[in-house]
Amino acid sequence: MRGQLKRSKPWLVGLLLLMAAIGLTAIFSPRSASGGESRDRIIAEGAGTTIIHGGTGPSGGLVPVLTTIAFHVDRTGGRVAGSFDCLALAPEASTGQFTVNAMYVAGQVTSATVNGDTATLTGTADITGLGAGSNVSFTFVVRNGGPGATAVLTASGLTFNELLVEGSFRVRSED
After folding, report:
1. CA 89 to mean position of chain CA atoms
2. Nearest alpha-carbon partner for 75 in 27, 112, 117, 36
3. What whole-number distance in Å separates Cα of residue 112 and Cα of residue 42?
4. 134: helix, coil or strand?
5. What is the pLDDT of residue 63?
6. pTM for this prediction
7. Whole-angstrom Cα distance, residue 140 to residue 109?
8. DSSP string for 17-58
9. Which residue did the predictor score with more confidence, 32 or 41?
């Protein structure tokens, strides 16, 4: 009997190690364990400095406006979620320094579509300055790229055509 127990120990240890490996795989790989492949992934992300094409426009004296933009949107379990922030600064009349807060948009992205190298992000935001309000609908259309990439922000009936001067915007294809 003792001889049989000695021979079965290596087999038992091997079985226990195999079961532990399967258990750890199931814990750390929920997609494989659930049997379905998830499409969890980043849809679009980016950050940088842009200049508003045309600044404040002819009626505003063609004053330049710089923005700092940051956004990140992903799809998790079929649900789109993300954040969008845009701070628009105009120059102070006396110094020319970009310190006047013209507009701040702090939003939550709830929908996103990708067409080639362009993503359209929509959601709601709290806005101060131009177009101020709470729970305001916005749309941000962004093209993939570094300096020279374009984006268009529409909120509160206002449209801002932006040109990236520093940073990068990344749009991931739906493939």
Report:
1. 22
2. 112
3. 11
4. strand
5. 87
6. 0.76
7. 9
8. HHHHHHHHHHHH-HHHHHTS----EEEEEEEEEEEETTTT-G
9. 41
